[in-house]
Specification:
The complex is a heterodimer.
Chain A: H1 4-11, E1 24-30, E2 35-44, E3 47-56, H2 59-72, H3 77-81, H4 85-91, H5 100-120, H6 126-129
Antiparallel strand pairs in A: 1-2, 2-3
Helix pairs in contact in A: 1-2, 2-5, 4-5
Chain B: E1 6-7, H1 18-24, H2 40-59, E2 67-70, H3 73-88, E3 95-99, H4 104-117, E4 120-124, H5 134-140, E5 145-149, H6 163-173, E6 176-180, E7 199-203, E8 214-218, H7 244-259, H8 261-279, E9 285-287, E10 298-303, H9 308-317, E11 320-321, H10 327-330, H11 337-341, H12 346-349, E12 352-356, H13 363-382, H14 385-391
Helix pairs in contact in B: 1-7, 2-7, 3-4, 8-13, 9-13
Classes of the chains: A alpha+beta, B alpha/beta.
Chain lengths: 141, 395
Amino acid sequence: MYSEKVMDHFTNPRNVGELPDANAVGRVGNPVCGDIMQIYLKIENDVVVDAKFKTFGCGAAIATSSMATELVKGKTVEEALKLSNKAVTEALDGLPPVKMHCSVLAEEGIKSAIADYYKRQGIDPEPIVGCIGDCDHCCHH
Amino acid sequence: MEKRFVYADNAGTTAVSRTALDAMLPYFSENFGNPSGVYSVGRASRRALEEAREKIAGTVGASAGEIFFTGSGSEADNWAIRGVAEMLAEKKGRHIITSAVEHHAVFNTLEWLEKRFGFEITTLPVDSDGLISLEDLKNAIRDDTVLVTIMAANNEIGTIMPVREIGAICREKGVLFHTDAVQAVGHIPIDVEAMNVDMLSMAAHKFRGPKGVGALYVRKGIRLPSLIHGGGQEKGKRAGTENVAGIIGMAAALEEAVANMDENMARVSAMRDRLIDGLTKIPYSSLTGHRTNRLPGTASFVFECIEGESMILTLDNAGICASSGSACSSGSLDPSHVLMAIGLSHATAHGSVRLTINECSTDEDIDYILEVLPKTVEKLRSMSPLWEDRLNGKF
């Protein structure tokens, strides 16, 4: 059911762990739904110089976290904000339909971290980043 | 420890035994006759088919005329429930009693009767071990109750239901009792007479027979309506040329399982207990289902702060086949109804892992699981933000 790419990113996830000097940390999902992503970014001069993650979730949740952090590394904040769930899914050679919400979560995870980055500078992130998390993408409880 | 292949999903399906395979093989080619044929090869198939029916009946205390072959355990469940509904809806009523931990073959059939035909379903709750209360059952039976359908043993947590006592209550109250014994037959003693069972479902591939064949026991005197209309096979109740080889394989496998049952139960449950003792030592883990009153081969757990599907995939990379009742592994968004029914929270139920062994399993397999699984839990917890919260005392 999973592509080779998904299995590769699940088995050997890139960027696992915490980033002690992260200046952008976001957390999305909830334990009821069965997936939580915590994304750490280090942003310097408007560029994502490092990214890490910690994820509780299924194979797809771990693989999309791994891929999303890979995709934003070296990108400007503006580019990172444009990361879509579709781009994450395509980079993984697709996901089963029931797992699409994991890619949405990965996109939201990155946005949530960037929102935190703006907040830390006293900037209201909502006009820039939009709504993040709690968008009821995951399950309906 | 060297990587090895360990199959621990025998509640999912089993490997066909050598005995069953050898018994089946001639019935694909040289003994290919249609049992309905009057010529010699047809008669030979008929004889073998009826011998198989007798053997299977004997293993559960039934007589041959009470065994009807089906294509699966699910089909047997559907037939029993829909058949009784059709038979008694007008005459007696539209109330059926079941438990909260049934297999989907029962659960979804009842839901269909409810939505489509206005049946009323009483779902008995279970305690944290997965057992129903007999008092609840007694209180739930009404004048219009047409059927009680409660499984013999649970497929996810292995808990064995008090079938004999349930049967006695149903008998006393004059209500038909069906039990889905798909996980029980061939693994624990079953006697439809002693247990007061009126209908019982089984599936060959759960006891080392082939896939695609099951059976429904229907007590003599119950005039269950036909499932498939057509020819006269299975007393005209389930038309279609019989799966002769499959049925013969089923009988051979079951006969072997029952002949070795005492020995298998002792050896398999000892291995199961090693798994339970070893794996519940992992912090924030627990056994699901009853500690002792459980199927010999079922060891089922929840490991907090990790998700079941990622456990299954990681174990698979290490050569271990296991299963999970987490939402992500079931293809739905909710964890299994069984884990919810025994009172687990959503978050905990997501971390379920089921290991089901049988007589093919070895002590070396158990050693390997005990070596690999704790490391797998540790690896996934090290990347889980929930585990971090847990260690920081946040919940």
